Amino acid sequence: GAALKYLPTIVNDVKLVFDPKELSKMFTEFILNVPTGLLTIQKLHCLIEIVHSDLFTQHDCREILLPMMTDQLKHHLERQEDLEACCQLLSDILEVLYQKDVGPTQRHIQIIMEKLLRTVNRTVISMGRDSELIGNFVACMTAILRQMEDYHYAHLIKTFGKMRTDVVDFLMETFIMFKNLIGKNVYPFDWVIMNMVQNKVFLRAINQYADMLNKKFLDQANFELQLWNNYFHLAVAFLTQESLQLENFSSAKRAKILNKYGDMRRQIGFEIRDMWYNLGQHKIKFIPEMVGPILEMTLIPETELRKATIPIFFDMMQCEFHSTRSFQMFENEIITKLDHEVEGGGGDEQYKVLFDKILLEHCRKHKYLAKTGETFVKLVVRLMERLLDYRTIMHDENKENRMSCTVNVLNFYKEIEREEMYIRYLYKLCDLHKECDNYTEAAYTLLLHAKLLKWSEDVCAAHLTQRDGFQATTQGQLKEQLYQEIIHYFDKGKMWEEAIALGKELAEQYETEMFDYEQLSELLKKQAQFYENIVKVIRPKPDYFAVGYYGQGFPSFLRGKVFIYRGKEYERREDFEARLLTQFPNAEKMKTTSPPGDDIKTSPGQYIQCFTVRPKLDLPPRFHRPVSEQIVSFYRVNEVQRFEYSRPIRKGEKNPDNEFANMWIERTIYTTAYKLPGILRWFEVKSVFMVEISPLENAIETMQLTNDKISSMVQQHLDDPGLPINPLSMLLNGIVDPAVMGGFANYEKAFFTDRYLQEHPEAHGQIEKLKDLIAWQIPFLAEGIRIHGDKITEALRPFHERMEACFRQLKEKVEKQYGVRTMPSGLDDRRGSRPRSMVRSFTMPSSSRPLSVASVSSLSSDSTPSRPGSDGFALEPLLPRKTHSRSQDKLDKDDPDKEKKEKKKEKRNSRQQDMFEKEFKPADSSLQQSEAVILSETISPLRPQRPKSQVINVIGSERRLSVSPTSPSSQQTPPPVTPRAKLSFSLQSGLELNGSMAGGDAADVPPPLPLKGNMTDYGNLMESQDLMGSSTPPPPPPHQRHLPPPLPSKTPPPPPPKTTRKQTSVDSGIVQ
Q1: Are the beta carbons of 613 and 670 closer than 8 angstroms?
Q2: How far is it, in rounded angstroms, from Cα 445 to Cα 206?
Q3: What per-residue confidence (pLDDT) applies to 154?
């Protein structure tokens, strides 16, 4: 050991008096005589000192010493002995050989290459990345390769002899090692020179090995698929490594790298292109596996590289087409890989343009790929547009933009039927919604996934269960879990109607397929709660806003488009605008609602146009009948796809005396791509339709909306007696108070004149409609005032009495000029009374059966009026505590006598039985002499009419059915039956209830019953002979906007209640 330690220290002195070659031989023999396994570390340190001596710098001495040293290194490296000393020795040897003044080194590099290169490679491969020596050994390997010349690479193959497998193994080892070192570099990123030197060496080695592939492994007999595959993956990994992406460096550093090393990406890229084209008939073996790596290479932002490598895609298309007559595999693979690459940061606008241009040029020149190839290219370009938009805003704080882009991408995948990618983006969208507490939208998003599944035992494909939370082996199990989660989200979003619909479908599975009664029980309990919530819980109605994005400053998915947004709970336009402008701080808010000009659209800035729109109700067919407002109100702001915006415009000369005469309405109807709410809180407008509404049509619409508003509010108070009275007070007072009664007078001045009729003869029917609506407002107001009188406190009694006095004046004026209208007695066409579980019940109509012919005013054969009744239903439980007719009587009488008023107050507080007797006793003489017209209600079935009217007579507590013929000569008519039930203001569109002033005696003979085609067709007003045949229907329900037929022109025009200009605009839906 001492000899090994101190002998090298005298080498330089001994060399002066002793032959260096002989000395070298002595040292060689001395080292070889050291026993194997003993004094290893001392031996290696002795060799290191010899390398450091002058002896090793002499060519002849190295010829003797180097083979012994390489043998020693190989022996110890293979046994993993004293690796640090071995690495130091090899490093020192290579350092000496790199010097210029040590004589020829080619032969010595060859010795090292032959004996140590593969051993060092395997040592590097076996080492972990956490080893302290990994960097040293990689440096040694790099140094060996750096000093190897072309001759050495050629000789390396010869050293393997005729054993082809040894060459394959060596190249496979080398390719795998290079790829690992490139993917996980052993040197820090900021060691730029070291990394660049390594890359330069690796690049040369890869190109040398590529020549070996072309020479030895390309022909049909010797082709090695895996070896070629490893080469392509290595080359692409080298090209795409982070340390070669020059655009990430500063301009100064980039310039130095280009000056010293060049752009190695371009060099290896061109080599890959050449190697691909060299494959010839073997190309098909690399499709579709090589599509991803080639795509990754072409996405590198180097223009010349892209131009050189993008044509490889066309070559792949062509190759697959020649083999299978399609390029479906290539198309599927590039779409899948493009999604991952772009999301990971690859690609840009320039790449999209180059891809489009280059591939289109190639496809159009091909005889068979011209059409299908062009379609494919356009499809990929569309996908790139969406993916680039998505990537741009993926980390944006504005989650709404992220949602928009996500939907754009998932819709594209749905369009091209890429289910796996479609589901992937569905869950990205769902996660965004949950982050924003958009539970309704999250539910609709998950529902899209659920719709892809069947209630079956089919095995669930891997791509269908992309969430760890779902443990399902069959599609049915996964669908059940999804439904449970969706119902939960709908509940949190207060969309109980949707939750119930899904619950019914799931309940059917539990009951008839799974027989899981425990789950069924839990589900039905939830459904019961949902129904109760619908009736009892007040849900805030969201506003809807139209938003236009104009200017080139917006991203492509917004630029030049109009969207309808669903506001949040209690969010008004001002708050919404503030939120919108926060997302786009550089945007300018437009002051007008008119469509912008080209100067705005093409400007480089950002302009936002925002205004409130009104959803157009599209009620499901099952609700086209009297339905509780609490149920219908949901559909006024949900499941809507059409929205309208109205603004007033003036035409003709301005009339200062009457602004209604020339106030037209410009109404824009927006139709969205999908119904709201949906998988987003907004959707793009797909069609815009504009109409102009004449002043007369506007007046009709205003009156209709006012009537609907009264009807709706009255219905709400009937449903929930605990509602505050203030809104009803303001509404009623605003209509009946003389201070604001100018509205009717304005209509008279504008439309009810002979001059207007002469100028607009075609408007006769519309004028009659307007008159009819004015007349119909009276019974609505009457019921509203009756409810108001029941609910007010004594402190508000003077206010109410003044309102009643105003209403009497208004009622007298309107009925005198436009006729009398009487509300139907709780008409319900559902063939029976409503269940008592409702907040309030609808009463049965005053007829024997819904499908039988009946007349309230029909007379028995003995000329006594038949008493109304119910076909098998007791009326008493259905009657509320107070009746409409009693309150109506109070309003009908004008006598201001104080005693009569007190008497009426006492009557209003009387009990149910008194009212029942009052309502249904025969008419007395005072009623027979009244000038009020009795409304005759008839119900005509689809089957032929019966010759006799079947009426149920109720006498005392006895009920019996009497069939009595109506007598034309009858001299008496019964009073109208008007028990106050839940008023059915929302009437069917086919309903016709007629009423007008009777000029003759109340005992006039009613006209015969007409033959009707509609099942719900009512008719035949009993009038004087002068006004025989006049017919006008009541206004339709709020959710049906069919205007009634016109009144006869003989009716004098009335003065309508005056409304302010602002009120008229609001009622007609105008957003000013």
Answers
A1: yes
A2: 49
A3: 87
Predicted local distance difference test score (pLDDT) of residue 335 = 93
Residues 393 and 402: beta-carbon distance below 8 Å: yes
User: And the tokens for 238?
Assistant: 């080298």
CA 141/CA 393 separation, integer angstroms: 45
Those residues with Cβ within 8 angstroms of residue 706's Cβ, 6 or more apart along the chain or in another chain: 735, 777, 1059, 1067
pLDDT in tens, 53-91: 888 899 999 999 999 999 999 999 999 888 999 999 999
Q: Kindly state the helix (H) or strand (E) to which residue 710 belongs, with its residue range.
A: helix 695-719
Task: In whole angstroms, give the CA distance from residue 945 to residue 947.
Answer: 6
Neighbours of 669 (CB within 10 A): 16
**pLDDT value, residue 357:** 95
At residue 867's C-alpha, the angle toward residues 863 and 869, to 5°, is 150
- In three-state secondary structure terms, 462 is helix
- Cα dihedral across residues 355, 360, 365, 368: positive or negative: positive
DSSP character at residue 9: G
For residues 201 and 238, give the distance between their C-alpha atoms in angstroms, rounded to a whole number: 12
Residue with tokens 């991408």: 409
Helix, strand, coil percentages in the chain from 3-state DSSP, rounded to 5: 55, 10, 35
User: How wide is the angle at C-alpha 635 spanned by C-alphas 631 and 640, nearest 5°?
Assistant: 175
Low-confidence ranges of the chain (pLDDT < 70): 1, 3, 6, 161, 466-469, 656-657, 738-743, 824-1072
Rounded Cα distance, 207 and 268, in Å:
8
Nearest-CA neighbor of 990 among 1034, 948, 1021?
Answer: 1034
Distances (CA, A) of 848 to 856, 862, 943, 962: 10, 20, 16, 10
User: Which residue bears the tokens 């504009």?
Assistant: 690
Residue among 300, 168, 307 at smallest CA distance from 238 = 300
Comparing CA positions, the residue from 263, 315, 322, 267 lying closest to residue 294 is: 315
Which of 633, 536, 670 has its CA nearest to residue 1039? 633
Name the residue among 202, 277, 276 with its Cα closest to residue 241.
202
127 token code pair: 């080492």
Tokens of 643: 């929205």
Angle at 281 between CA 276 and CA 282, to 5 degrees: 60
Eight-class DSSP state of 605: S
- The pLDDT assigned to 467 comes to 66
Rounded to the nearest 10 degrees, what angle do helices 475-492 and 439-450 cross at? 160
Helix pair angle (419-435, 439-450), 10° resolution? 160
Beta bridge pairs of residue 609:
548
DSSP 855: B
Q: What is the DSSP letter of 1009?
A: P
3-state DSSP call for residue 70?
Answer: helix
> Is there a contact between 719 and 787 (Cβ–Cβ < 8 Å)?
no
φ, ψ of residue 686 in degrees (nearest 5): -100, -25
Concatenated DSSP letters of 743-797: HHHHHHHHHSSHHHHHH-GGGHHHHHHHHHHHHHHHHHHHHHHHHHHHH--GGGH
607-615 and 588-589 as β-strands: parallel, antiparallel, unpaired? Answer: parallel
What percent of the chain is modeled with pLDDT above 90? 49
Q: Dig out the tokens for 532 from the structure.
A: 């109760």
Only one residue has tokens 């080599």, namely 271
Q: Are 846 and 865 in contact (CB under 8 A)?
A: no
pLDDT (tens digit per residue) in 112-157: 999 999 999 999 999 888 889 999 999 999 999 999 999 899 888 8
The Cα diameter of the chain in Å comes to 161
**Which pLDDT does position 466 carry in this prediction?**
63
CA-based nearest residue to 239, from 190, 209, 217, 206: 206
Q: What is the CA radius of gyration of the chain?
A: 46
Going through 635-738 in order, the beta strands assigned E by DSSP cover 640-650, 663-676, 682-693
Q: What distance in Å separates the CA atoms of residue 546 and residue 635, rounded to the nearest whole number?
A: 19
